[in-house]
Hints:
Layout: H1 3-25, H2 33-36, H3 40-45, H4 53-77
Helix pairs in contact: 1-4
Amino acid sequence: METLPLILTVIQIVTSVFLIVVVLFQSGKRSGLSGAISGAADAFLTKNKARTWDARLARMTKWVAVLFIVLTIALNLIPQ
């Protein structure tokens, strides 16, 4: 086995495990205060939504998923 596909495969495995962990750490849509309170309080709470831990996890999920897809396509394009 060549070196480049082996390195990319190891990076893809680490990325997939990290993606699973990040998704499992995210809370559901209805958990927390936003599911219990609606109306004006919900509008007030969404003001700082970009700074919350869930927002960071959601952003991280998107970037790790893109990296996983790019690695998958790269591994399929490399001749073995």
